[in-house]
Amino acid sequence: MATQKFSGPSPYKLPATYPKEDYIHTDYVNNVTLNHDVKPPKKPVVAAIFGLGRAGSIHLTSIINNSRIVLKYVVDDRTERFADLKKYWNFGNDVTLLASSDAQRVYNDKEVNVVFIGSPTWTHHDIVVNSIANNKDVFCEKPIAENIEDTKKCYEAAKSKGRVLFSAFNRRFDPSYRALKNRVRNGEVGHVQILKVTARDSPLPSIDYLKTSGGVFHDCLVHDFDMACWVLGELPCRVQASASALIPEVKAIDDFDTIAFLLTYPSGTVVLGDNSRYSAYGYDQRLEVFGNKGMIKVENERPYHSTQAYIGHEGVKESPIYYSFPSRFREGYKNELEHFLDVVTRGVPMEVTDYQTLAISKIATAAEESARTGKSVELDWSKDGIPANYS
Ligand SMILES: NC(=O)c1ccc[n+]([C@@H]2O[C@H](COP(=O)([O-])OP(=O)(O)OC[C@H]3O[C@@H](n4cnc5c(N)ncnc54)[C@H](O)[C@@H]3O)[C@@H](O)[C@H]2O)c1
């Protein structure tokens, strides 16, 4: 009886609200209510995808499941897999599989208006430039090219043709990281004093992949640098990095597998990062911001998040964290694709801009220089055309 007085009005009389953090419910509500604001009726884009390895397979899965895209070409050099690919994905005659030596067919096909690139980094520049020259919008895996000069050429080509060139920094589209960024930008932690980012890869990539990856700073740490600058809306004035190769095969190709870095920002914020090519316990991805008003963290996510612990004589055992990027960033990959389609079909402003991508490439180059020379590198942005409002 003592609590009856708190019962309040019938729930039928209460406004039907739900927490906006439940982005999956929002998606569901949009689908149930046929919300044309989020999915205005538009003709599907006609697409080609280059490269069906680790990254390309993630994008292919999203493309096939997306009603806003009609897939017309798949380009890959492992032609011996084509028969299996056709069978597995149930491709009809409307999907053509080509080796890269026949890629001109894609460029010449006027019906194709978007190109997805998931092929190795060293192939990006040519595919981007050829696609753009033939009036196609491009979704390209990071990094856009092997070096800053080629990346600039890609963006200049896109600008001169008025085409979209999207750099797939998928972590920005992860719901948890995005929520952290929005909360930081709303001032919840005040002025950020320290941002900590941890990114430890799993599983260990093959040595063949690492040989042509462009090195760990351009292949992996670009994500960490982008996270930091995107959250803070600022670019660092000093970069320091220390790195070693503890895995003999990584040392043999003159790359690094164990990296710590420090970025110092003009506003006084300091960013601490640690990155590894190999994490034995899963894909360890964490982010923490600490400011004068508080602290926000994104911890590792787990597939069985509702079954948190097994308790036994040995103590408490939690379920494992996600094993690798396709599972941890599944939502991010889907969201970045939707964003790209919004940019291409609805003119929504692109979130990953040319100057941001170039700035991240410049930070990666400086960090590698710091790791190799043992010196800190000062960065001058005065000639880079960076708007005051970085992100
Ligand atoms: N954003 C991310 O989370 C993420 C994750 C992994 C890789 N990547 C990026 O994706 C790209 C590919 O990496 P990966 O790990 O998928 O490589 P991968 O080696 O697993 O796959 C590359 C595929 O491209 C094919 N290929 C080679 N040359 C080609 C060409 N000229 N045209 C078309 N296909 C060609 C290969 O046959 C192979 O199937 C790299 O740029 C990498 O940096 C991004």
Automatic annotation (TrEMBL):
InterPro entries: Gfo/Idh/MocA-like_OxRdtase_N (IPR000683), GFO_IDH_MocA-like_dom (IPR055170), NAD(P)-bd_dom_sf (IPR036291). Residues 48-168 form the Gfo/Idh/MocA-like oxidoreductase N-terminal domain. Keywords: Oxidoreductase. One of its GO terms (cellular component) is cytoplasm. GO terms for molecular function: nucleotide binding; oxidoreductase activity. The keyword Nucleotide-binding does not apply. GO terms for biological process: NADPH regeneration. Pfam families: GFO_IDH_MocA, GFO_IDH_MocA_C3. Residues 177-296 form the GFO/IDH/MocA-like oxidoreductase domain. Belongs to the Gfo/Idh/MocA family. This is Uncharacterized protein LOC111358637. It comes from Spodoptera litura.
